[in-house]
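Dear U.,

For the methods section draft, I wanted the exact inputs and outputs in one place so we can describe them consistently. I've listed the two proteins in the order they'll appear in the manuscript figures. Please don't edit the token lines directly; just add comments below if something needs changing.

First protein:
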Amino acid sequence: MAGIRGILMPQNKKIILTVSGIVLVALFWIFRVSSETNPQESHMITFLSLEEIEAAGDRRIRLGGIVKPGSIVIQKTNLLDCRFTLSQGSHTVPVHYTHARPDLFTDDAEVIVTGQYVSGIFEADELQTKCASRYEGDLRDESSYQLDALNL
């Protein structure tokens, strides 16, 4: 019996050490991730109103609003370079965006932009548009369902 215990003890110690090592690595990783103070590193993005944009500093933020009619300007030499004005009530912010634009990006479109507010211009690196209401029927109004178009 003493011989069997001598053989099992080293195996048990190996299992305990392995499990302890995994737990320590996991605890270290959790501590490291939760203690990051830079929002870009932790991927935390704050949604602000246009009125609050001055308080953003140099951190990444997300804004929502309406594209001001007539404000979209696309550079002729670089068709990805776009400038427009985002409005929210009486507040407006100039936006600069240099990536592919969604198909629904037009005047009066509801958009959400993500980026940084730098020297009075919002430098966006993400642009999302809300689906236009013309694609959505009023679900309370059965006459808007257009079942004839489905060929049922």
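Second protein (the one for the lower panel):
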Amino acid sequence: MMTAARQDLMGEDPTDALEVLGNEIRMAILRELAEADGSLTFTELRERVGVRDTGKFNYHLTKLCAYFLRETDGGYELGHAGSRVIAAGDVEADPAVADGATDVREDGCPVCGESDCGKYFHVHLRAPWA
């Protein structure tokens, strides 16, 4: 079933997803969900992020749900694109990358299969329902 946020975004430029990431509260939400051991309820997530205003928090959470999160029976969790955004921030954690290597894969890119891809992550911004 498609959420109202996703229905509103149909037909829009998929690069609008990048605009959603340009807010510190939204990035904090992604980080907290990445560190969680499962889904977090609205209240748990709001408290972890440290936003007191529930309306303000709901606004930012709704923006993220359009591309980067999914709502489950237990609360909220990272979607595929949300996981990739968080993974992009962890590139330096790989010692080979920290040493200046440009491509640490020997068998080619696991996403596109190219041996000289040079990308450490791929995010497909096209909505899966489009």
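Candidate sentences for the figure legend, describing the second protein: The first strand starts at residue 69 and ends at 72. Helices lie at 4-9, 16-20, 24-35, 42-49, 54-65, 80-89, 95-98.

Thanks,
Y.
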